[in-house]
Amino acid sequence: MDSSSTRHSNSKKRKKNATTTNTNQKTLGVAWGSKSFSASSSSSRKSPFSDFGSYMAHKNSKLHNQFDSEASASSSRKTIFSGVSIFVDGFTVPSSQELRGYMLKYGGRFENYFSRHCVTHIICSNLPDSKVKNIRTFSAGLPVVKPTWILDSVAANRLLSWVPYQLEQLASNQPKLSAFFTLKSSKMSEDTFTNALCQVEPDYEDSFPRVGQPKDRHPSEAGEMVEVSRLIGNESNDIASEKPDVIEDPISERVICDEEKLAEANSSETNNERNTEGGLDPTFQEPSTSVSIPFSDNQNAHQFPSSEATGSSKQCHSTLTDPNFVENYFKSSRLHFIGTWRHRYRKRFPNLSTGLNDGISNINASDIKSVIIHVDMDCFFVSVVIRNHPELLDKPVAVCHSNNSKGTSEISSANYPARSYGIRAGMFVRDAKALCPHLVTFPYNFEAYEEVADQFYSILHQHCNKVQAVSCDEAFLEFTDAEVEDPELLASSIRKEIYETTRCTSSAGIGGNMLMARIATRTAKPNGQYYITRERVDDHLNQLPIDVLPGIGYVLQEKLKKQNVHTCGQLQMISKTSLQKDYGMKTGEMLWNYSRGIDYRSVGIIQECKSIGADVNWGVRFKDMKDCEHFLINLCKEVSLRLECSGVQGRTFTLKIKKRRKNADEPAKFMGCGDCENLSHSVTIPLATGNVEILQRIVKQLLGCFYIDVKEIRGIGLHVSRLENADTSKQEKYTLKSWLTSGSASVEKLKYQMGHNKHNLDCTNSASSHGSFHSQGSSFQMDNKIPNIQVSGDPISAPPPLCHLDVEVIRNLPSEVFSELNEVYGGKLIDFIAKGKDRCESSRSHGNSFLEHDAAYNQEELPYSDPIPRNKLFPENKAMQHERVPGTGHGSYSKDTPNSKFERDDLLPSSLSQVDASVLQQMPEDLKAVIVEHLPAHRGKDFSSTPDICPSRINQDSQGVNPSKNCPGIVNHALNNSLWAGNPPSWVDKFKDSSCLRKLGEIYHRSGFSSQLSSVLPQFISEFHQLDLIHEIYDETVNMMCELLRQYVKVKIERDIEEIYICFRLLKRFAAKSQFFFRVYNDIFPFLQAAVDDNYGGSLSMPS
Amino acid sequence: MTYAREAHPCPKFEASVTMQRKENQTPQGKAASVLVEFLEVAITAIVFLKGFYPSGAFERRRYMNLVVQKARQPQLRYYIHASASGLLPFLLKGMVDRVAVIFFNSDNVPLEKFVFRFAVNLSYRSAVEEADLEISLRSFLSKLLVSESLTKKLTPDCRWEITCFFRSLPETGASKEANLWIPTEDTKQWEQPPLITPIRSMSSDPLFLQLYIEHPSLSASSVL
């Protein structure tokens, strides 16, 4: 055939194909429409389209027309998928073409090219790691669903919720539980919905779109509601697309209410979040902000100019010597105290936030006049310490870490007498002593601070229901004019009470807004109060230096000074527009407002932290990478702890490093950071986390980005930002965890999928147990139907003795299951329940036997005739197994993951013999490996890799039956003498004695016995490599290995030459490196070739 | 005993070879009919892989959700199709040992053989899991599609044919189909045992299938 003509006609045809009816080819080469450059380059060359974009637009419209015409041709009335438009990504079963067919037939749409606007669901079976990591970019927030969703929907003849079909890769952390049991999750969301509603109410002034239409919530207006919920659903999807339970699927009639609520609940959550994240009070001290108040070290009187640092406990001063450096560091850090104080405060006054919000909601801020009182303790850190030393009241006193007269630590706080000597916070003690020789220094007393702060706040809360805490010693109170006749009187009574209770003085500033109140406090100090009435605002501000205004820092101040602006009065003369031009919109407006005493902030809005983190800038010295990593691990723990305390998780992680500047000398302050460059790297991940292990991984990665010599590091900080509320995103996870750890009783229930004791469980958990319930029910039925099929007549399928039953479980069984079970036990069950409250322990064996029952059943039906059965379940059997698998598989999953938390014995069966092989088989590989690894090897004998050949269901605990007798799969095998007979193969046992080859057995064991030798060999080689050097190679070892391989060849030669080929290619490669394998290979190779020749009439080609 | 299909089929085959999938309801029958279909694809893939014909002679199709080639030239397509489906009755009887796609040089000396080795478990009685079978076959096929590097370059002026190795003599006259297979006597054989390069082995009850390439061993090729 003339090739050129062929090609020509072919390309012609192809072009035609692209525009006519044959769509088979179209999706093949194109993954993501607009990115597919190859498609563009080949077609646009000849095409009349001006550019790729118009070509694609044209193509898409043609495809749509095509689809429409085909759809109308198929003339099916069914519209299951109306409104659904899928995009199929990558390889799926069934194929994208079949899915397209379904969509054609049932009124859906099928997009050939991804578009955020047309596509509603992305269908795929598997995602590459990069897409999972960047799921937002990939999916644009759309649901990513498995193709079975479509099949099941077609089978059910209605649109099912896609949630249970979400891709596991994405849903792996928690949604599985909730998603699996839609019923429950919707119920739960209903709760959150109502909760959220209450919380949202007060925020109505904010222009959130939903808020204007409170009526929409009435179910009567269903149509409109759908509209709204869709809108909101979309919106919340945009904002919080990571939240897997966002549902936006207004089409499905059945679940519509739930979904609506879900969507609303979600949107209100987001709303909350947004509000709280809204404006950050500039005065608020985030735990993470580096505060530039230097302070001192309490042991060593050296000096340091660090911006944030503290001393550490006793002798351990640097990361070099103290293994718990990080922990100790923060224990004695004042800034840490301030930073974490907020959480303690929140916990102590938990009712505040809601109460406050209620208050606010009734007030239209601009209309009702209110008065703000700013209360601030006078030099809190000093006065708390000296309240028990009245004689020091008038003496200069300072607080610092170290009392050492060498004076190399820093003053962190000084009282007014001391300040009059010119002593300021941040000064070295040495210098301070020079100014004031009789200065008395005290160390911190954190317990006292906490105590006083608590007293302080309880007083404030008694007087006012709108308190905004700024710090442990500083707060704003808001009163309406109606409430208070004379604010000055009120302020003085509060101050008096504070003094009487705490024996510390405080000052109060009173003003029309927070800004003025704060400015007033400045005048009031110390131990006084000042009221800036509305009339006095202008006077007061006129001469006020600009740096007093919040939000004006050093840089801004310098800039303004250059413009010759020193006071607020001068600032007032500059127009708003020019301020905004020079300093940006926001800052400009702020300056303009503040200089006129205008402040719109209102008291009581709880500030959420924007970031949480920890810095250590003192005592950081690393010898090598190991030190550094160890330090980072601890830092991660600390940060993770803080995240947990605040109940948030973050997505962006920033690692900050202080690197010693070149030529910088050792800092004046002992172990200080000295002159440093500040470096930072950050990374953002798609799913918020607070998990310490993930943190550690990320941090390690980040550290790698610096390319820094660890010896140069003088300070490290880790900050987490883009915080999300952990409660909303991780609710299930948390409860599950707490559930798991809450007590051994409930733990037992979980692991055997029998957790029916609902008393302390939330709906998620009950949902999960509900699921396992069914699986259990089905196994019961099986048992009942076939109690006597057992060939050997052994009693496995008989119900477990009464004493082994868990009362709790039985009691919670659904009534029909219970009555059935009761029959089985001849009615004894009722009595049993009545008396047996104290027998919960036995639930374990009970659960075990259930599992074993149905597996035993499966196994009995299997054909033993077949030596290598793979998929030998009868259809009906299979169906049952399917039914069972989600429950059991799931249970075993939970079984495994938290196993560090409690005793393994509790959770895992005591040996592999008790593992249901069929369940194990269904588990993901990694999970399988972990389980196998955790089970005692020596008892793994009767464990089978193929679920049916060797039933592993022997109930040793309750039946006391010798396992081997129940393994019909093994018994009659001709290969009895072979090393590869049995499961695990007998060589695993035999090789135990060999120091070298035992390893192979272990690795093979770890792989779950299911793998072929070729998959195990590489790992063995890598581990063997060390052994090779240490141990002498005995002939015996070589012989054993040869024999093993020889028999493997025998087993495999007939049916799997590929496996043998791979093994020997590997061996040959290893032979070049290892003496041992060289000998083995040379010994065995002739045999191999002979075997191949026998079977295939040739020799294996072994290219080097 | 080997039989070969002639590479240039005559039109008379067209009427005689028909697929009879409906009637084969035993597990073996089901597996065999899947296998026959699969063979057709695999053989086409081999021919395509070897670059025997210009790539324009093939068009892309989807089979088991994989992109494969299909011959566009009717005769070629028919030859492969008829050869594969002609195996069906023999497969069911378990008579087929191997099917080879053999490439010859101009002297009729085989240069390369792609050998499919079958085993059908005739005693298997359970239902065939088509999904499992399909997964196995797909992995088989995907390995085949990337095996070009294992093959040798074609010499100019070569030809190819499909040869079947039977375990026993087909009863001539038993069916029309059996007559379509011609005993091969004139093919030159290698004097030395060939070198075998396995490509893929799979076992999915009741079907066992292996594919490997045979090349003349170095000494043998020098002899010929």
TrEMBL record, chain A:
Entry superkingdom: Eukaryota
Residue span(s) of domain BRCT: 76-167
Pfam families per the UniProt record, alphabetical: BRCT (PF00533), IMS (PF00817), IMS_C (PF11799), IMS_HHH_1 (PF21999)
Compositionally skewed regions (Low complexity) per UniProt: 18-27
Enzyme class: transferase
Entry keyword Protein biosynthesis: no
EC number(s) per entry: 2.7.7.-
Keyword match Magnesium: yes
Domain UmuC intervals: 372-553
Compartments reported by the entry: Nucleus
Main location as per UniProt: nucleus
Chain coiled-coil ranges: none
InterPro entries on file: BRCT_dom, BRCT_dom_sf, DNA/RNA_pol_sf, DNA_pol_Y-fam_lit_finger_sf, DNA_pol_Y-fam_little_finger, IMS_HHH_1, REV1, Rev_trsase/Diguanyl_cyclase
Family listed: Belongs to the DNA polymerase type-Y family.
Function: Deoxycytidyl transferase involved in DNA repair. Transfers a dCMP residue from dCTP to the 3'-end of a DNA primer in a template-dependent reaction. May assist in the first step in the bypass of abasic lesions by the insertion of a nucleotide opposite the lesion. Required for normal induction of mutations by physical and chemical agents.
The protein's name in its UniProt record: DNA repair protein REV1
Organism this protein belongs to: Stylosanthes scabra
From TrEMBL, chain B:
UniProt-listed Pfam families: HORMA
Domain of life: Eukaryota
Start and end residues of each HORMA domain: 29-213
Listed name of the protein: DNA polymerase zeta processivity subunit
Source organism per UniProt: Stylosanthes scabra
